[in-house]
């Protein structure tokens, strides 16, 4: 209904609207977007490879334990993801106008991430059992070692977000494609 109302209100302008195809602009957009697309696909593969491989070699109970831990980690990772998303426009502007301020901003964000990651990692090591009992119940106690590993991993995962954004603002996203491909391959090997 809203779309129809908007079309009625702007119908005079629409009749004057002509579509022109600028092949150079389309190529430029595709060249820019392609690495992000590949990175997103690889990220999706990375996110699901563990569970797929668990399904091949283990029971559905094992998959449930791992999935519970992954859901908890996804909840924990919301804060760094919000910070990184909110700071990307600032970082983009600073990459163009003031590289010294960009460096300072990256250092501050990295400090925030470590202030989040260190308590999560070490708190997770100490309180993993209590976290599992509180969030999932005693039926998931076998997931405690996995939770410890995943929470310690946050020490590396959170700072990686800032380095990836730094690559983006310097238009170096193409160099992330082989890095992500290697990461996917190593993930399969380590599983």
Outline the structure in words:
The protein has 191 residues and is mainly alpha-helical. The protein is built from eight helices and no strands. The longest helix is centred in the middle third of the chain and has 37 residues, at 99-135. The radius of gyration is 22 Å and the shape is extended. The model has no long low-confidence stretch (mean pLDDT 87).
What structural keywords apply?
single chain, about 190 residues, mainly alpha, 8 helices, about 85% helix, extended
Write the layout of secondary structure elements.
Layout: H1 2-9, H2 11-16, H3 23-57, H4 60-76, H5 78-97, H6 99-135, H7 144-169, H8 176-190
Helix pairs in contact: 3-8, 4-7, 5-6, 5-7, 6-7
Summarize the structure.
This protein has helices spanning 2-9, 11-16, 23-57, 60-76, 78-97, 99-135, 144-169, 176-190. The protein has 191 residues and is mostly helical.
DSSP strand content: under 5%
Distance between the termini: 50 Å
Silhouette: extended
Q: Could you say which structural class the secondary elements and strand pairing correspond to?
A: mainly alpha
Q: Determine the mean pLDDT.
A: 87
Radius of gyration: 22 Å
Low-confidence segments, ≥5 residues, pLDDT <50? none
Tally of DSSP β-strands: 0
Please give the largest β-sheet.
none
Number of helices: 8
SSE topology string:
HHHHHHHH
Helicity, as a percent range: over 70%
């Amino acid at each position: 209904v809203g779309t129809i109302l908007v079309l009625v209100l702007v119908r005079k302008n629409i009749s004057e609207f002509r579509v022109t195809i600028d092949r150079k602009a389309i190529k430029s957009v595709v060249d820019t977007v392609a690495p992000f697309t590949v990175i997103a696909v690889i990220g999706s593969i990375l996110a699901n490879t563990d569970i797929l491989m668990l399904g091949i070699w283990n029971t559905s109970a094992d998959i449930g334990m791992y999935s519970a831990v992954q859901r908890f980690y996804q909840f924990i990772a919301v804060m760094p993801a919000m910070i990184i998303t909110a700071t990307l426009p600032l970082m983009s502007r600073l990459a163009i106008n003031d590289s010294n301020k960009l460096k300072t901003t990256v250092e501050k964000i990295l400090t925030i991430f470590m202030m989040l990651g260190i308590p999560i990692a070490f708190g997770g090591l100490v309180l993993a059992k209590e976290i599992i009992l509180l969030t999932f119940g005693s039926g998931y106690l076998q997931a405690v070692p996995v939770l410890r590993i995943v929470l310690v991993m946050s020490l590396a995962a959170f700072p990686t977000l800032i380095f990836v954004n730094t690559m983006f603002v310097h238009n170096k996203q193409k160099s992330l494609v082989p890095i992500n491909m290697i990461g996917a391959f190593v993930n399969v090997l380590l599983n």
